[in-house]
Design a protein that fits this description.
Order of helices and strands: EEEEHEHEHEHEHHEHEH
Largest sheet: 6 strands, mixed
Strand order of the largest sheet: 1-4-5-6-7-8
Shape: globular
Number of strands: 10
Distance between the termini: 35 Å
């Protein structure tokens, strides 16, 4: 059976500039530096990973990180959550929101139910770039965040780029922590200054909103794609592809806790 899962590997803020590789099928990895968290996703379109394969995946992740980020709509989410608990992995749960308001309501209900029934959920994210992409207006997003905060005891946030956090102090006030992607490539930064770029964005938000935790949700560099400003893909240092980059299935996905 062909493996259909994906381990989305990223570099946390604490170890930017370090690199590592993983061979999930062989159950091995090589790392230089400390990995804080990984985004884990199964792709179950007719060829889903077996429970044994998920067990192997999370056991491998447990050797290098103690937190996984998981979509609330993952087809194998219940099994992943169960095995993650067995492996003593913490989970950051993400609700995927879009322009369908009824579907969003159902997704938040699912998020709340999962967070209530799984003690290893560290915190939850109400949407990912829903404002940036225009799926919701701010009032709609704030209402969903408020509903989640009133319903569960774990911290609640959302994922938006630094400019959204910068320009919306009321959104910052509505969440328990700032969860922010940092993409020097998409902002046209040269790779030589990419680490400084991420650090600068993190420091800016920490200074602007003192006392509010700021966590880098994902970062990285693509192996191929267009040149954006001074940003040039670097195939020798990463193993993703431009298609995967567009789908957030390359080295951008990580969590720093």
């Amino acid at each position: 059976m062909k493996r259909t899962f994906a381990i989305h590997i990223g570099i946390s803020l604490a170890i930017l500039g370090s690199f590592f590789s993983i061979n999930a099928a062989a159950g091995t990895y090589q790392a230089f530096g400390r990995i804080v968290g990984l985004h884990y996703e199964t792709r179950g379109k007719g060829n889903a990973p077996t429970p044994d394969q998920i067990q192997q995946d999370l056991s491998l992740i447990n050797q290098m990180a103690k937190t996984i980020r998981l979509s609330a709509e993952s087809e194998e989410q219940d099994l992943v959550l169960q095995i993650a608990a067995q492996e003593e992995l913490r989970v950051v749960l993400v609700a995927k929101l879009g322009p369908d308001l009824a579907a969003n309501d159902a997704e938040i209900d699912r998020l709340i139910a999962i967070a209530r029934s799984n003690a290893n959920v560290a915190f939850v994210c109400v949407g990912q770039e829903a404002l940036l992409r225009g799926y919701l207006n701010k009032e709609q997003l704030l209402e969903l965040i408020s509903r989640a905060r009133q319903s569960i005891s774990v911290p609640v946030t959302t994922i938006e780029p630094w400019t959204v956090w910068r320009d919306n102090s009321d959104l910052v006030s509505a969440v328990d922590l700032i969860f922010v992607p940092a993409s020097p490539y998409l902002e046209g930064e040269p790779i030589e200054s990419s680490v400084a770029f991420v650090t600068k964005r993190h420091s800016y938000l920490k200074t602007k909103y003192p006392g509010k935790p700021v966590i880098i949700s994902d970062t990285g560099w693509p192996s191929e794609g267009p040149i954006i400003g001074q940003a040039v893909p670097a195939p020798k240092i990463s193993g993703g592809s431009w298609t995967n980059f567009q789908r957030r299935q390359t080295l951008r996905e990580s969590i720093s806790l």
